[in-house]
Records
---
Amino acid sequence: MLKIENTKVVGWEPAIRGMRNPLNSWAKSDSYFDSDKNAIGYADLDLMRRLAAAGPVHAKYRRMIVVYADVTAPLYWWKEADTYKVGTVANSCSTMHKIHSRDLTLEDFSSDHLDEESMMILLAVIKQINKERKIYIETKDKKAWYNMIQLLPTSYNQRRTIMLNYEVLTNIYQTRKDHRLDEWHTFCDWIRELPCFEIITGEVKDDNSD
């Protein structure tokens, strides 16, 4: 399970301005930006596409297009996502400080692929964690707190607010779009919904589409 909310993309104006610095071609820019509406012009988009096709050395402008989003995903997915450290920032909900704040339920975990036997095991683990939580709340016994932390499966869903950029997303898309985890397919589908996604994916966008 992976859920992405509150997506925000910023930095188009300085990215395009910087993109045109090498050839002093600012006068050819046809994009429009104000506080209410941003519109990427055809000439600017065409140049972005050509530079993206030429590779990351030529598409340095992608590093200046910044994306913010809230992502809820299991810990096993975050372990893989954490390999993309360059150009990223993340603030997460604290497992260490909040795991004892309430009883855990099945909805706190990604369990959509579990068979019946494995589901029973997960439910038993959740039950034990909640038992240790009760002990910890009543006694403040550090052993019970450690039991909660060390019993917690990697299927536990954690929410993080992330900041990354189009260059990082290009790397993610190329290396993860065919990954076996469903969560990566959901993430790559989200990438294809971003503005001017073709400068990330290299896919051709139909300019006549709505």
Note: The beta strands are 3-10, 32-33, 38-39, 66-74, 89-92, 157-165.
---
Amino acid sequence: MNATGIIDLACNRSVVETAGRLESLLKSKGMTVFSRIDQAAEAEAAGLTMRPMVLLIFGDPKAGTPLMSRYPSIAIDLPLKALVWESADGKVWLSYNSPEFLRQRHGLDTLPFGAIGNLFQAATQ
């Protein structure tokens, strides 16, 4: 985890493949993928260029709703997000907010979403 609370995982596949793999894994665990935003395609539509980048917005209302009811500020970070992106050197990364960062940021008494790291790790392979 870096100083901003973001965990960056190196990926073995392209941005599109990794994002697709993550989306499938999330859905297989019963999570809802609310949106998949191809940032590079949006940039291209605006006449700009950027390296491949896909943002997935996802969650499980059964898990998130009780947290938002008890800790309203966490709603700014829910649903959860995962960013799959290509760095200038051509490496692909999957980035997400650390559960510990979310716990500290919102004063939670327990660590939220700790198991999500396993899905992210699986998506990077």
Note: The beta strands are 6-10, 32-38, 53-59, 80-86, 92-97.
---
Amino acid sequence: MSAAQQVEQTDLAATMRELGARARAAGRALAVAPSESKDRALRQAAAAIRDSVKRLLEANRADLDDATKAGATAAFLDRVRLDEKRIEGIAKGLEDIAALPDPVGATTESWTRPNGLNIARVRVPIGVIGIIYEARPNVTADAGGLSLKAGNAAILRGGSESFESSKVLIDCLHAGLRAANLPEAAVQLVPTRDRAAVGHMLTMTEFIDVIVPRGGKSLIERVMREAKIPVIAHLEGLCHTYVHHSADIEMARRVVLNAKMRRPSVCGATETLLIDRAAVATHLPPILAALFDAGCEVRGTEEVQRLDKRVVPATEQDWWTEYLDAIISVKVVDGVDEAIRHINHYGSHHTDAIVASDEAVAQRFLDAVDSSIVLHNASTQFADGGEFGFGAEIGISTGRLPPRGPVGAEQLTTYKYVVRGNGQTRP
């Protein structure tokens, strides 16, 4: 490393420590902030976003231009892109978060001991949340808003691909915080595209209490490997839809088409379709026709290829692939048990669905598939905190330990025990 690079890295380390110190102080203030103040900050931030549509679109155009020059795919550009409808969705998401009950201070359980001590388990903020994410600028508002609602300070390291858009969104969040007399340092954006900032965040044990990564497989693997701080992992969305022979044919066609093609670039998009062998002749042709008509590439096993010459051969690698694009792999399976085995072997424990009229078969699938979200007769694209009534989410946690599934405001709290007595002493 050259002398100039050493100076640069020293400066970055100092910048990150300063961010951390400000976040820690802001987190202590937020932990005791009234619900009304937090909600006012969220609503005023939403108003600021609506007032900044032109500025946001200009910043996003710059981000898209940079990503295009770097050779980004159409699917990737879709994840970066903002338009007036998406900007309104971001503002509405903050208002939805504001409308939720405040999770901080809620008693989840209480009991009284024989000696008269009353013990309550009460939700409290975690402290400072470090969020590392790629591409999607809406995560800047969602993550900042949810952290604020839960009484946490947030340090956001957004993707370099949406850096300009995120800076405008942070300005809007700061406007909301100022209007509510809350510290602006409650939500901070790492002010550099330098990837070395991620390395600093992963070791800032003095200032950051938990890391939430949201992005591609390489980012998640790096965070899991290098973090000295607890991690709420959002792994890739290798999602499946299984169509059982008892499924209503039209329902199966609509659900699969939506699960794949509504937005192919989101983590809840179905990447592999599993079709019951007993349903190949009846259910698969209309599903394939709908996918091809929508512009989807289909990769399939030999039985699938025989149904339609447009199907290209699937390889072993396809069962392991999160396309995030208008591509789907299709495999014929011998019943629900083989579907379950395939999903538990190849899946990422994110979101998987069954389309079936047979309730016993559906229940077996829901019980046996080891994923954070399982659905019956519904599109995998419902894997979203907003659709769950959480207002928004900062990711889908795919680990075994809680929080699991969509991570909203409530999932960004921990708890403590509050014990009340009237002079008891222990014998």
Note: The domain at 239-387 is CATH 3.40.309.10 (Aldehyde Dehydrogenase; Chain A, domain 2).
---
Amino acid sequence: MNHRCATLWLARLVLVVVFCFNVSCALAFVARPEVYAPGFEVSGGAGEILVCGMGILFLMWNVTYPLAIWHPWRYRWLFLIVIVQQAIGLAGETWMLLTLPPGHAALAVTGYRFVAFDGGGFAAMLVAFALMHRCMSRKTCGGEPAQQG
């Protein structure tokens, strides 16, 4: 396997890992919202609907991943959109966590969990994209001509 191919597989791997975590979280929120509602300090039917709705939003958010996973270089603009989505999520979650008033321990733990995961995913995707872009945009990589497709 040449260097170019390895960087594409690294990009795919990073995208797949983040995608799978996101989708598994989304499906868990949709299938069993009553389990996750206390972490958001909501309860009852309205709280369950809120958590289920968050799961649906997570699914909508992840519709951008499959094409980027399939061919991260060909769909590099989509890969960049995925990175921007991750950055927006991380920034919003961080802002909410920093402005959370005292006395919301369960919500703070949930916030820290989201920030940690989204921060890790953002960093991993950014590094994978940079490595892929560096290798794929060269005229040659390992003695091979750059592929445009």
Note: DSSP finds six helices and two strands in the chain.
